[in-house]
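Per-residue structure
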Amino acid sequence: MAQETVLSLIRKSTDFFTAKGIGEAKLSAEYLLAHVLREKRLQMYLRFDQPVQEEELTEFRALVRRRLNHEPVQYIVGSTEFYGLEFAVTPAVLIPRPDTEHLIDTILDFRKSGKIGEHLRLLDIGTGSGAIAVALAAQLPGIRVTATDISGDALALAQENAARHSLTERIAFVTHDIFNGSIEESTAPFDIVVSNPPYVPQSEVDELQPEIRNFEPLIAATDGGDGLRFYRRIAERIDELLAPGGLLALEVGAGQAESVREILEQAGLRDIAVREDYSGIERVVTAWK
């Protein structure tokens, strides 16, 4: 039997994943093999005819079996990319997704237009892996961030990701439940408040992809209610959290933008706007105090 090469293994694995109904079959094969070969995914194609050694093949097959169980590739390899930065991820946190990059873009666009200043205090509610906090701190050298989460495991991982990008001096990580009590060690009110909160309605949990439903922390995906509980709570506490003239920026689920707009209007916020993602889904809602 001919020895497998990088290209032949990717092709066979892609066909195998496709036949088994695994999403993003080719990407799954590429990322898993790149992890085994200790290569960047695209760098593999510079050596597409490289033979795959038997021990590498054994390791790769073990990872393929995990993927066949719908375990997310990001958890298998232990990392993912978000806004051009690499983040460690574990089942303690939701996997950062490209949709959330629109939230980063929104903040940066306001900075470029001069609507927000350079030396600001920012609050990230429900930081998870720290993706939003770290990406914004990396892009905006003048800001200082307070990143909160209810999960100690999530905060530990977020701290690891901040250290990975040498940003620990500008990001404070605080255990906090938005539904219970004030933020300890806080410099509230903040100039900017951002959040990608749990917004999947409980009624839709069973419809989630098995990668999410069976592996990602549901406490970070669903609010256990109608999907709007966190938006209402942030709006209720907006006077405490957001300084006059401050910016609120929220990621929302598909079809939620109008409901969130109404919540923010009732809280007295102004100049409410909605930003669509690349699929035309209303993804980010912003408002000013």
Remarks:
- Residues 7 and 43 are 12 Å apart (CA to CA).
- The chain has a mean pLDDT of 95.
- The first helix runs from residue 6 to 19.
- Strands lie at 79-82, 85-88, 121-125, 144-149, 171-175, 190-195, 242-251, 270-276, 282-288.
